[in-house]
């Protein structure tokens, strides 16, 4: 007998429920010639992330429930992608559970036949309650009607601001943000009005919230949307904000460069993911953590439309020899009880029930929790083009943004990028079919 999330259950009952639907048609049984065999250790490959730290502390619980030893390898996001591309392309069975980015890798991995189909498992288990997972998060791990992963972490952009510099409260609109950032921008005194991502590829995800809030999108009716009036206005706004109120060298900056600028007290505002808020306010690295406030993404002409994404998920390697046990782990790690426990510890999860719990936001600063709730209510479930070759797409749609930062002709650059993106989308449509 074991206790899971406060509920007493029998080990045999747990294993039977966790392996529900373990049929060949579910894609979780099959052959394999190496990797330790069906009775070997369960091998997890995870990203260096706050979720990983939190779940590792709870692994003894799963090992006791399942009677299975768990071996964990952790890597950076870039190392993770490189490892998957090498191992999965070789049909390697020595990875069982994979932490991955649904928006970045789902289409490619599913098309290549690298992910086990979890549809029958998530939908056929009433105790797991798939309908409790946020609709946008479910959408991101579903391709051609089949579920290939389970979301574990959600994130939205939040407005980080210096309460001592804006005592009347944070700007509620993008126009107010620009006006206040310009007023506070004083490079001679070492103060930047606004710190934001400007590096072309990596800035696209954060720029998406501006695009949606101006009423635009990357793809409209199957065609490029980057040259629409709404998109051009968004590019011009964001590029102009970085050009006129941002730090020097901003076109080479991503999250790793802007967080220390803000944390060292050299920026009045920044907008970035809420899941990394400790990078901005940790007292060990930040000089302004006690003076930092959080607010929802400011409203544009179309309102406040930030991205609200499942930034990370778990999937099962289609070539694993332990696919049934791998599903047991996913079921446990993303159960309503575990997600609630992790969210109470400060990891924003993807289940509605966790967000509805009155204690779930206690681990976050109150204004940050309010920002998270607001972003979840009005957010868009993607922060980049929904394509197979995401990296190439981000390079294309990021070009007009860089042009705006540099003060170049945004309209001309947007039309040129739109033509290239249209050609890209035609090729992408041919690549999307799953094996």
Q: Can you describe this structure?
A:
With 435 residues, this protein is an alpha+beta fold. The protein folds into two domains: 2-154 and 309-366, D-Maltodextrin-Binding Protein, domain 2 (3-Layer(aba) Sandwich); 157-306 and 387-431, Periplasmic binding protein-like II (D-Maltodextrin-Binding Protein, domain 2), CATH 3.40.190.10. The protein has 18 helices and 15 strands. A hairpin with a 2-residue loop joins strand 1 (2-4) and strand 2 (7-9). The protein is globular, with a radius of gyration of 22 Å. InterPro entries: Bact_solute-bd_prot1, SBP. It holds the Pfam family SBP_bac_1. It comes from Pseudonocardia kunmingensis. This is Carbohydrate ABC transporter substrate-binding protein (CUT1 family).
Question: Which descriptors would you attach to this protein?
Answer:
five-stranded mixed β-sheet, 15 strands, 15% strand, D-Maltodextrin-Binding Protein, domain 2, globular, SBP, 435 residues, four-stranded mixed β-sheet, Carbohydrate ABC transporter substrate-binding protein (CUT1 family), 2 domains, alpha+beta, single chain, Bact_solute-bd_prot1
């Amino acid at each position: 007998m074991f206790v899971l999330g406060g509920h007493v259950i029998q080990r045999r009952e747990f294993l039977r429920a966790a392996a529900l639907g373990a049929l060949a048609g579910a894609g979780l049984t099959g052959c394999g010639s190496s990797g330790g065999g069906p009775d070997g250790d369960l091998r997890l490959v995870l990203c260096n992330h706050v979720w990983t730290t939190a779940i590792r502390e709870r692994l003894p619980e799963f090992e006791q429930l399942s009677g299975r030893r768990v071996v964990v390898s952790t890597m950076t996001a870039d190392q993770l992608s490189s490892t998957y591309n090498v191992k999965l392309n070789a049909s390697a069975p020595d990875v069982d559970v994979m932490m991955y980015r649904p928006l970045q890798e789902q289409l490619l991995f599913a098309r290549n036949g690298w992910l086990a189909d979890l549809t029958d498992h998530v939908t056929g288990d009433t105790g797991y309650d798939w309908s409790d997972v946020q609709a946008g998060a479910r959408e991101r791990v579903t391709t051609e009607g089949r579920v290939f992963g389970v979301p574990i972490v959600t994130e939205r952009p939040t407005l980080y601001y210096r309460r001592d510099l804006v005592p009347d409260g944070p700007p509620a609109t993008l126009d107010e943000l620009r006006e206040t950032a310009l007023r506070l921008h004083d490079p001679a005194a070492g103060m930047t009005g606004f710190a934001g991502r400007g590096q072309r590829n990596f800035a696209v995800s954060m720029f998406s919230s501006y695009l949606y809030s101006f009423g635009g999108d990357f793809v409209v009716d199957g065609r490029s949307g980057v040259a629409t009036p709404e998109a051009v206005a968004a590019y011009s706004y964001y590029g102009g904000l970085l050009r006129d109120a941002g730090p020097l060298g901003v076109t080479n900056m991503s999250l790793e460069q802007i967080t220390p600028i803000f944390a060292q007290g050299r920026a009045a505002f920044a907008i970035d993911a809420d899941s990394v808020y400790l990078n901005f306010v940790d007292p060990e690295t930040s000089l302004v953590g006690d003076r930092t406030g959080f607010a929802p993404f400011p409203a544009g002409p179309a309102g406040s439309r930030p991205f609200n994404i499942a930034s990370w998920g778990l999937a099962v390697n289609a070539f694993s020899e332990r696919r049934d046990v791998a599903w047991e782990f996913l079921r446990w790690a993303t159960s309503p009880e575990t997600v609630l426990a992790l969210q109470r510890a400060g990891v924003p999860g993807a289940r509605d029930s966790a967000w509805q719990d009155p204690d779930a936001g206690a681990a976050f600063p109150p204004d940050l929790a309010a920002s998270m709730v607001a972003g979840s209510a009005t957010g868009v479930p993607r922060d980049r083009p929904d394509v197979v070759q995401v990296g190439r797409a981000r390079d294309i749609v990021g070009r007009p943004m860089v042009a705006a930062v540099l003060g170049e002709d945004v309209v001309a650059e947007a039309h040129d990028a739109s033509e290239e993106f249209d050609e890209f989308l035609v090729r992408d449509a041919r690549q999307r079919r799953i094996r």
